Amino acid sequence: MRSCRDISALVSQELDKKLSLSERLSVGLHVMMCNRCRNFQTQSRFIRKAARRYTDELQSRLDNKS
Amino acid sequence: MNDTLLTEQTLAVQRPVLFRYALLQLRDSELADDAVQETLLAAWQSAAGFEGKAGLRTWLIGILKHKIADHWRRSAREAVAPTFDRTDEGDGEAEEDDYFMSSGHWNGGPKAWADPEAALKQQEFWAIYEVCQNNLPPKMANVFMLRELVGLDADEVCREAGLSDANYWVTMHRARLRLRECLDIRWFNNTKQEQHHA
Known about the structure:
The structure holds 2 protein chains of 2 kinds. Chain A is mainly alpha-helical. Chain A has one domain. Chain A has helices spanning 4-14, 21-33, 35-65. By secondary structure, chain B is mainly alpha-helical. Chain B has helices spanning 8-12, 15-26, 29-45, 56-75, 116-119, 123-134, 138-150, 154-161, 165-188, 193-197. Chain A binds chain B through residues 3-6, 8-9, 12-13, 15-17, 35-37, 39-40, 42-44, 46-55, 57-59, 61-63, 66, and chain B through 20, 23-24, 27-30, 96, 99-100, 103-106, 109-113, 116, 119-120, 126, 129-130, 133, 144-145, 147-151, 154, 169, 172-173, 176-177, 179-180, 183-184.
């Protein structure tokens, strides 16, 4: 049984590469039972979304100033 | 298909990534646009110099860096924006341990966030987001920004930042842990948050 420390690292990696089948299974089973790792997963995805939007926000802010 | 074949189209596809890179450094849309324009023009004129070894985008970013450096030299101003070349002065290697106990369980750990989508529409949220992003140690911030804001691929980021694969995973994971915690404290589980919604 993998720890939250290991699972959260896999959750992070999953955003950048395809995990192996056994890794995906471990993550899937773990987040079903563990609220905190599940929250980390949703929140990491949200952070990615926010980060991708940040440059647009920055640009509109900069353009409004000038 | 020849990878080294440069057409106006293959260059134009790279424009958004180059623009975001330039914008984050120059913090001015027009200047960023100019720098990208000059970069694409220079690339077009020296297409023969492109050998396709390092990848088109890496080559273009190399040219763009020179254009940005030229700009700072001309304007004789200090670069205040991220330079994407910084290193961290021995930033705590063991910091991940702040987030986990020795058993491997979360120390505290992520609580649920109410309606994150709504936050994206609020000016105040973006101010907090920026603070949290700026709070990352410099090199970690560079890696995170090259990947998530500029939109480079993981292996391109490794090349740019001189990171090994293993270092890349660790750095990105720590950046997410830190950003998450900061957003949690300053926005999502901040009791003052109610004011924003009022």
